[in-house]
Amino acid sequence: MLVHETNVTLPNGSHWRTGSDLRDQFIFTPYGRADLFVPCGGRPATINAANVGALLQQGLPWKMVVEGANLFITDPARRKFEEAGMHLFRDSTANKGGVTSSSLEVLASLSMLQDDHDRLLTAPSNDDDLPEFYMRYVESIILQIEKNCCCEFKVIWDASQNSKGEKMLKIDASKKLSQEINSLQDVIARDTLDNALLRGVLKHALPDLIVKHQGLDTLMERLPEPYIKATCANYLASKYVYEYGIVTSNSFNFHRFMERFATGVLPTPPVSPLKVNGKK
Predict the structure, then answer these.
(1) N or C end of the chain: which has fewer CB within 10 A?
(2) What is the pTM of this model?
(3) 80-121 pLDDT, tens per residue?
(4) Does 64 lie in the same domain as 132?
(5) Domain range spanning residue 75?
(6) What sign does the CA torsion over 101, 105, 106, 111 have?
(7) What is the pLDDT of residue 42?
(8) Radius of gyration, CA atoms only, the chain
(9) Alpha-carbon dihedral angle through residues 104, 105, 110, 116, given to the nearest 10 degrees
Protein backbone atom coordinates (compact mmCIF):
# COMPACT_ATOMS: atom_id res chain seq x y z
CA MET A 1 0.00 0.00 0.00
CA LEU A 2 1.47 3.35 -1.04
CA VAL A 3 1.21 6.40 1.19
CA HIS A 4 -0.98 8.29 -1.30
CA GLU A 5 -3.57 5.49 -1.61
CA THR A 6 -6.90 5.92 0.17
CA ASN A 7 -9.68 3.70 1.53
CA VAL A 8 -7.84 0.38 1.34
CA THR A 9 -8.89 -2.84 3.05
CA LEU A 10 -6.08 -5.23 3.95
CA PRO A 11 -6.35 -9.05 3.76
CA ASN A 12 -7.04 -9.25 7.52
CA GLY A 13 -10.15 -7.08 7.05
CA SER A 14 -8.76 -3.88 8.55
CA HIS A 15 -9.72 -0.68 6.75
CA TRP A 16 -7.32 2.23 6.33
CA ARG A 17 -8.27 5.75 5.32
CA THR A 18 -4.83 6.55 3.87
CA GLY A 19 -1.50 4.87 3.27
CA SER A 20 0.09 7.44 5.57
CA ASP A 21 -2.08 6.22 8.44
CA LEU A 22 -0.99 2.65 7.84
CA ARG A 23 2.66 3.68 7.65
CA ASP A 24 2.45 5.47 10.99
CA GLN A 25 0.54 2.64 12.70
CA PHE A 26 2.04 -0.41 10.98
CA ILE A 27 4.01 -1.70 13.96
CA PHE A 28 0.78 -1.78 15.98
CA THR A 29 -0.92 -4.12 13.48
CA PRO A 30 -0.62 -7.93 13.39
CA TYR A 31 1.63 -7.51 10.33
CA GLY A 32 4.19 -5.74 12.50
CA ARG A 33 4.92 -8.71 14.79
CA ALA A 34 8.13 -10.71 14.28
CA ASP A 35 10.98 -12.46 16.06
CA LEU A 36 13.46 -9.68 15.32
CA PHE A 37 12.73 -5.98 14.80
CA VAL A 38 15.44 -3.66 13.46
CA PRO A 39 14.02 -0.14 13.11
CA CYS A 40 16.18 1.69 10.57
CA GLY A 41 14.24 4.92 10.20
CA GLY A 42 10.94 6.43 11.23
CA ARG A 43 10.01 9.31 13.46
CA PRO A 44 11.69 9.83 16.86
CA ALA A 45 9.66 8.55 19.82
CA THR A 46 7.40 6.46 17.60
CA ILE A 47 7.24 3.97 20.48
CA ASN A 48 6.82 5.78 23.78
CA ALA A 49 5.39 5.51 27.27
CA ALA A 50 1.89 6.31 26.05
CA ASN A 51 1.62 3.52 23.46
CA VAL A 52 4.05 0.81 24.59
CA GLY A 53 1.27 -0.83 26.62
CA ALA A 54 -0.78 -1.37 23.47
CA LEU A 55 2.12 -3.24 21.89
CA LEU A 56 2.43 -5.51 24.93
CA GLN A 57 -1.28 -6.33 25.31
CA GLN A 58 -1.01 -9.48 23.18
CA GLY A 59 2.41 -10.49 24.52
CA LEU A 60 5.82 -9.50 23.20
CA PRO A 61 5.50 -8.12 19.66
CA TRP A 62 9.19 -9.01 19.06
CA LYS A 63 11.62 -11.29 20.85
CA MET A 64 14.56 -9.00 20.13
CA VAL A 65 14.99 -5.38 19.04
CA VAL A 66 18.24 -3.97 17.65
CA GLU A 67 17.87 -0.23 17.18
CA GLY A 68 19.26 0.68 13.79
CA ALA A 69 17.66 4.13 14.06
CA ASN A 70 18.31 6.71 16.75
CA LEU A 71 15.53 7.68 19.16
CA PHE A 72 12.82 5.52 17.55
CA ILE A 73 12.00 4.13 21.02
CA THR A 74 12.01 6.28 24.15
CA ASP A 75 13.79 5.23 27.34
CA PRO A 76 10.56 4.52 29.31
CA ALA A 77 9.33 2.28 26.47
CA ARG A 78 12.67 0.47 26.28
CA ARG A 79 12.48 -0.23 30.00
CA LYS A 80 8.95 -1.63 29.68
CA PHE A 81 10.08 -3.93 26.85
CA GLU A 82 13.05 -5.31 28.78
CA GLU A 83 11.06 -5.78 31.97
CA ALA A 84 8.54 -7.78 29.91
CA GLY A 85 11.33 -10.13 28.75
CA MET A 86 12.41 -8.64 25.42
CA HIS A 87 16.11 -8.51 24.46
CA LEU A 88 16.74 -4.91 23.41
CA PHE A 89 20.01 -3.42 22.18
CA ARG A 90 19.72 0.31 22.07
CA ASP A 91 20.88 2.78 19.41
CA SER A 92 24.06 3.88 21.21
CA THR A 93 25.38 0.33 20.94
CA ALA A 94 23.89 -0.78 17.62
CA ASN A 95 25.14 2.25 15.67
CA LYS A 96 28.78 2.19 16.74
CA GLY A 97 29.66 0.40 13.52
CA GLY A 98 28.64 3.48 11.57
CA VAL A 99 30.85 5.67 13.76
CA THR A 100 33.79 3.31 13.22
CA SER A 101 33.29 3.25 9.47
CA SER A 102 33.07 7.04 9.09
CA SER A 103 36.07 7.65 11.37
CA LEU A 104 38.24 5.28 9.31
CA GLU A 105 37.17 7.09 6.14
CA VAL A 106 38.40 10.31 7.75
CA LEU A 107 41.64 8.58 8.73
CA ALA A 108 42.36 7.64 5.11
CA SER A 109 41.82 11.19 3.89
CA LEU A 110 43.97 12.68 6.69
CA SER A 111 46.87 10.26 6.33
CA MET A 112 47.23 10.14 2.54
CA LEU A 113 48.32 12.69 0.01
CA GLN A 114 45.55 13.57 -2.43
CA ASP A 115 47.10 11.69 -5.37
CA ASP A 116 47.53 8.54 -3.27
CA HIS A 117 43.99 8.80 -1.94
CA ASP A 118 42.50 9.19 -5.42
CA ARG A 119 44.56 6.34 -6.86
CA LEU A 120 44.02 3.83 -4.04
CA LEU A 121 40.54 4.62 -2.75
CA THR A 122 38.50 5.95 -5.66
CA ALA A 123 37.45 4.80 -9.13
CA PRO A 124 37.75 7.18 -12.11
CA SER A 125 34.12 6.54 -13.03
CA ASN A 126 31.13 4.46 -11.98
CA ASP A 127 31.95 1.94 -14.72
CA ASP A 128 35.48 1.24 -13.47
CA ASP A 129 36.40 -1.45 -10.94
CA LEU A 130 37.31 -0.23 -7.49
CA PRO A 131 41.04 -0.44 -6.64
CA GLU A 132 42.27 -3.52 -4.80
CA PHE A 133 43.51 -1.32 -1.93
CA TYR A 134 39.98 0.04 -1.50
CA MET A 135 38.51 -3.45 -1.30
CA ARG A 136 41.11 -4.53 1.25
CA TYR A 137 40.45 -1.41 3.31
CA VAL A 138 36.73 -2.11 3.31
CA GLU A 139 37.45 -5.64 4.54
CA SER A 140 39.62 -4.30 7.36
CA ILE A 141 36.88 -1.88 8.42
CA ILE A 142 34.28 -4.66 8.47
CA LEU A 143 36.60 -6.86 10.54
CA GLN A 144 37.14 -4.05 13.06
CA ILE A 145 33.40 -3.49 13.36
CA GLU A 146 32.81 -7.23 13.89
CA LYS A 147 35.48 -7.39 16.61
CA ASN A 148 34.01 -4.42 18.43
CA CYS A 149 30.51 -5.83 18.03
CA CYS A 150 31.46 -9.14 19.65
CA CYS A 151 33.17 -7.33 22.54
CA GLU A 152 30.32 -4.86 23.04
CA PHE A 153 27.71 -7.62 23.03
CA LYS A 154 29.68 -9.74 25.51
CA VAL A 155 30.03 -6.91 28.04
CA ILE A 156 26.32 -6.05 27.85
CA TRP A 157 25.20 -9.68 27.95
CA ASP A 158 27.47 -10.53 30.92
CA ALA A 159 26.16 -7.52 32.87
CA SER A 160 22.57 -8.59 32.19
CA GLN A 161 23.29 -12.18 33.27
CA ASN A 162 25.48 -11.37 36.28
CA SER A 163 24.99 -14.09 38.89
CA LYS A 164 27.27 -12.54 41.54
CA GLY A 165 25.40 -9.29 41.95
CA GLU A 166 22.46 -7.26 40.74
CA LYS A 167 21.62 -7.89 37.09
CA MET A 168 21.42 -4.84 34.84
CA LEU A 169 18.95 -4.22 32.07
CA LYS A 170 20.73 -4.24 28.72
CA ILE A 171 19.74 -0.64 28.07
CA ASP A 172 21.40 0.38 31.36
CA ALA A 173 24.47 -1.72 30.63
CA SER A 174 24.79 -0.13 27.20
CA LYS A 175 24.59 3.36 28.68
CA LYS A 176 27.07 2.59 31.46
CA LEU A 177 29.50 0.99 29.00
CA SER A 178 29.55 4.12 26.83
CA GLN A 179 29.91 6.36 29.87
CA GLU A 180 32.88 4.37 31.19
CA ILE A 181 34.65 4.39 27.84
CA ASN A 182 34.10 8.14 27.40
CA SER A 183 35.18 9.11 30.92
CA LEU A 184 38.25 6.85 30.82
CA GLN A 185 39.16 8.19 27.38
CA ASP A 186 39.17 11.73 28.79
CA VAL A 187 41.44 10.72 31.67
CA ILE A 188 43.87 8.88 29.39
CA ALA A 189 44.08 11.74 26.90
CA ARG A 190 44.72 14.23 29.69
CA ASP A 191 47.13 12.37 31.98
CA THR A 192 48.60 9.21 30.47
CA LEU A 193 49.87 9.59 26.91
CA ASP A 194 53.50 10.48 26.23
CA ASN A 195 55.14 10.29 22.81
CA ALA A 196 56.56 6.78 23.28
CA LEU A 197 53.18 5.40 24.36
CA LEU A 198 51.43 7.22 21.52
CA ARG A 199 53.71 5.52 18.99
CA GLY A 200 53.25 2.15 20.63
CA VAL A 201 49.47 2.37 20.76
CA LEU A 202 48.88 4.05 17.39
CA LYS A 203 50.22 1.10 15.39
CA HIS A 204 47.58 -1.09 17.03
CA ALA A 205 44.77 1.47 17.06
CA LEU A 206 44.90 2.09 13.30
CA PRO A 207 44.16 -0.47 10.57
CA ASP A 208 47.25 -2.53 9.76
CA LEU A 209 46.80 -1.79 6.06
CA ILE A 210 47.19 1.96 6.65
CA VAL A 211 50.11 1.55 9.05
CA LYS A 212 52.05 -0.66 6.64
CA HIS A 213 51.31 1.53 3.61
CA GLN A 214 52.03 4.90 5.20
CA GLY A 215 54.55 3.98 7.87
CA LEU A 216 54.28 5.00 11.52
CA ASP A 217 56.63 7.99 11.15
CA THR A 218 54.55 9.40 8.29
CA LEU A 219 51.34 8.91 10.23
CA MET A 220 52.76 10.67 13.28
CA GLU A 221 53.80 13.55 11.04
CA ARG A 222 50.61 13.93 8.98
CA LEU A 223 47.87 13.25 11.51
CA PRO A 224 46.95 16.20 13.77
CA GLU A 225 48.18 15.73 17.34
CA PRO A 226 44.67 16.01 18.90
CA TYR A 227 43.47 13.32 16.46
CA ILE A 228 46.33 10.99 17.44
CA LYS A 229 45.70 11.49 21.15
CA ALA A 230 41.95 10.98 20.80
CA THR A 231 42.45 7.85 18.68
CA CYS A 232 44.91 6.27 21.12
CA ALA A 233 42.87 7.24 24.18
CA ASN A 234 39.70 5.77 22.69
CA TYR A 235 41.53 2.58 21.72
CA LEU A 236 42.93 2.08 25.22
CA ALA A 237 39.67 2.98 26.97
CA SER A 238 37.49 0.73 24.84
CA LYS A 239 39.91 -2.21 24.99
CA TYR A 240 40.10 -1.92 28.77
CA VAL A 241 36.32 -1.76 29.29
CA TYR A 242 35.75 -4.57 26.77
CA GLU A 243 38.25 -6.80 28.57
CA TYR A 244 37.28 -6.10 32.18
CA GLY A 245 33.62 -5.26 31.68
CA ILE A 246 31.57 -2.71 33.60
CA VAL A 247 31.34 -4.77 36.77
CA THR A 248 34.97 -5.68 37.52
CA SER A 249 36.82 -2.62 36.17
CA ASN A 250 38.82 -0.69 38.81
CA SER A 251 42.03 1.32 39.18
CA PHE A 252 44.16 -1.75 39.99
CA ASN A 253 42.96 -3.59 36.89
CA PHE A 254 43.62 -0.49 34.77
CA HIS A 255 47.18 -0.18 36.11
CA ARG A 256 47.82 -3.84 35.29
CA PHE A 257 46.25 -3.34 31.85
CA MET A 258 48.53 -0.38 31.06
CA GLU A 259 51.61 -2.33 32.23
CA ARG A 260 50.85 -4.91 29.55
CA PHE A 261 50.98 -2.19 26.91
CA ALA A 262 54.29 -0.97 28.26
CA THR A 263 55.75 -4.48 28.02
CA GLY A 264 54.20 -5.22 24.64
CA VAL A 265 51.80 -7.89 25.93
CA LEU A 266 48.57 -6.68 24.39
CA PRO A 267 45.05 -7.79 25.32
CA THR A 268 43.33 -10.04 22.82
CA PRO A 269 39.55 -9.86 23.33
CA PRO A 270 37.41 -12.60 21.80
CA VAL A 271 36.54 -12.11 18.15
CA SER A 272 34.96 -15.47 17.33
CA PRO A 273 31.16 -15.87 17.34
CA LEU A 274 29.87 -15.78 20.88
CA LYS A 275 27.85 -18.57 22.42
CA VAL A 276 24.70 -17.70 24.33
CA ASN A 277 22.97 -20.50 26.19
CA GLY A 278 25.11 -22.99 24.29
CA LYS A 279 24.23 -21.56 20.86
CA LYS A 280 26.26 -19.35 18.55
Answers:
(1) C
(2) 0.83
(3) 999 999 999 999 999 999 999 999 999 999 999 999 999 999
(4) no
(5) 6-93
(6) positive
(7) 82
(8) 23
(9) 120
